[in-house]
Amino acid sequence: MITGTPQPEETREALSILFLGIGYAGMRLIAHLPGKVPDFSYAAVDTDAAALEACAFPEKLLLGEGKLGGLGAGGNPDLARSCAEMQDEEIVRLLSGHRVVLLILGLGGGTGGGVGAYIAERARDLGATVLAAAVRPLELEGGHRRHVADVALAHIRDHAQACLVFPLDVLKTDGDMPLRQVLGRCGVEVSRALGGLAVLLRTGWLMPLTLRDVIHVMSRADGYCRLAAVSAEGPDRARAVVEQLFSHPVLDRGSLIAHSSGIVMGILCGPKTTIGELEQVSTEIRAVLRSDASLKIGIAQEPRFGSSLGIVVMVAERWSSAAAPVAADEEEAGEETDGGEEAGDPNASGKLVQSEINLGSDTRGRFKGASPTVVDGEDLDTPTFIRRGIRLSQNRQRSGS
Amino acid sequence: MARALAALEIGTTEVRVLVAQPREDKHILITGVGIVPSRGIRKGQVMDVKNAVTCVKQALAEAEEQADASIQEVLLVCSGGLFRQIVNRGMVSFPAESVVTDEDRLDAIRNARAVNLAPEFEVLHAIPQYFYTRADLSDGVTNPVGMNGTRLSVDMLILYAERMGLNNLVTVAEEAGLDVYDVAFGGLCSALGVLTPSQREGGALLIDLGGGTTDYVLYQDNLPLRAGGFAVGGDHVTHDISIGLSLSTPQAERLKRKHGEAMVDLLARDRKVTVPPDGGFRGGDVRSRDLNTIVHARMQETFELIKSALGEELFRRGMRAGVVLTGGGARVPRVTELASQVFEMPCHIGLPKDVSGLSTPGDNPEFAAATGMIRHVLQTDTQSPRGFSIRNLFKPFLSKK
């Protein structure tokens, strides 16, 4: 529950954050950001000299000039990685001094996949917090490209604390959409989301949200997540932003929020936004969450946001195989020092929640006696919503017969 | 006029008998249908022979009365809970480069069929896929006769099943006074029943959402490349609802059929659905969002299981016809939307094709397997295009009593 108690505005410690565009797609996706969010460092690396030349970032690094002639890696991640390894010193110099490195890249090709994993590894070695924003290729680009993308993403995940995944296919609204429009829309969505993340990581917060919150929540899941940003103005803005979130393609039209185990949400609003509006947003989102979902909410209220209400949401994408043990949860919760709301805490809402259901053998019900259906060690005769920790709002509103 | 054929499907939800008269224009004229709710069957397997036999007899009597015929032998459809698949490669080598003959082709097929299985399993289908004459397997043709090469290899899709489970189904049919003329995997039958030749050629994933099992077949170039099933079906959805909303199984089944949807629309207003009392269970109100959350979770998981089982094969050659859903589960509202989201490709409902006579089968996805079984037998009776006869494979098995 959000309370109306006024708090002094908290000034965030300045984090040194590097936005690093890798390959052509990575550079394009954040090309506009320096103009809009100038507080951060921006750099680009690529194996394609012409693409790098067109990039306006202050720091740029061409990889494999001698080996590739500045013509790109030809979709070969191994070749691109070998070029990066040969220029290790220059990469280390580029990364040095930054506490957070955000890698932006396209998957399925050579430079993004090959160089991305190597730079993530080196940044981590240097003690930086590494986040990666990766765009998955379209289905029409073929199985091989998707396979290369999956492999590259797994390698990047080995070193990055969290991977923000943007699947291009979900941004198609229908089959009649021209490819250029799909790519353009993807660019807009990714840019808006990354811009939102930048604001989220560095602004004055009434209810603080830290990078540590982001990492902590994401580490509860598999470390893969989706990022989306929405905003609305006008008297019905609270309802409008929630509707945008629940219909956002990157969030599988709200389905990911309902099923995710970890969510970080930054609410950005102007001085005229009321506590009632903030409560409305919080209540509507908490109503659909899983019982064991970890939700972190931060609120920044600044004049520069005017009459608009914006939400940046980071959602753990993959199913957690099982809910975290209660003891571990409590221990983790105890480590938190901020005022973020743990809306996923069933005790906070006082509702009966699904996690209280007995998960014993009687959940096999009518399948007792039949050979159990076990796949990858999971007994599929136990209801899916129980195994996946999905909360039901059902509150036993039964009448007598 | 050709003789009438009868297909028997001993399903978890219903026992179905279909009597059909093949016509010269490849249409199937349905002359009799018998449908009886199942007893003694769980997950497509016999749990109570006596009850199952009673159901078969009732369905048979109903179909015989409609068809005005006496049925002595049936084609038995078995569902996927019993089945497993492997792809085995068989090869013949030539001393020098030579032209592949039909004899070479049959030798390669024979070698590919030779698999060592544990004694409790029985091979039911062995379906040749692509032939290769090059050592690097870079070609891949459906008919290698006349090509040059130093070797010929072929991939064989082998579907095998637990002998005991199959024997139980055959026993039920025989106890009901029937001879089992042929046995086939329900997924393959459904594919023949609903997919058009161009869909099978262009690539399609057929999913038969049954009561106790879910079968799938991946078609490409008119070949079933992968096939299998899970002992998870509509019965599991009902079971999940009854556990989650504390309802009796009949209450849960009625609620599912009347109000269940495969998608959870977070924007739609949550509705209260009144459940009347039933057999000692109290009535009361349940929330439609809870109901749909349960249905969504189970059906999404089922699709994810299939996607995971197919792995890269799903995207390797392109799937122009997308996903085709059939079986009773295809009736669940918005299930195509869910499948489309999980598989990231278009999806639609497949109904039995080229069926006339009684209106029921052509309008019902539940009859996909039974009509497909009849079509399959008609095809193998008149032609054996790929050098194998299912019936010949089954005869040894059927004689083991």
Topology:
The complex is a heterodimer of chains A (401) and B (401).
Chain A: E1 17-22, H1 23-29, H2 33-36, E2 41-46, H3 49-54, E3 59-62, H4 65-68, H5 77-86, H6 88-95, E4 100-106, H7 111-125, E5 129-136, H8 143-159, E6 162-167, H9 179-201, H10 211-220, E7 224-232, H11 237-246, H12 255-259, E8 262-269, H13 275-286, E9 294-301, E10 309-316, H14 326-335, H15 346-349, E11 374-375, E12 378-379, H16 384-387
Parallel strand pairs in A: 1-2, 1-4, 2-3, 4-5, 5-6, 6-7, 8-9
Antiparallel strand pairs in A: 7-10, 8-10, 11-12
Chain B: E1 5-10, E2 14-22, E3 28-37, E4 41-42, E5 45-46, H1 49-67, E6 73-78, E7 83-99, H2 102-113, E8 121-132, E9 148-162, H3 163-175, E10 179-185, H4 186-194, H5 197-202, E11 204-209, E12 214-220, E13 223-230, H6 234-244, H7 249-259, E14 272-275, E15 284-287, H8 288-310, H9 313-316, E16 323-326, H10 335-343, E17 347-349, E18 355-357, H11 359-363, H12 368-382, H13 390-399
Parallel strand pairs in B: 1-6, 3-18, 6-10, 11-16, 16-17
Antiparallel strand pairs in B: 1-2, 2-3, 4-5, 7-9, 8-9, 11-12, 12-13, 14-15
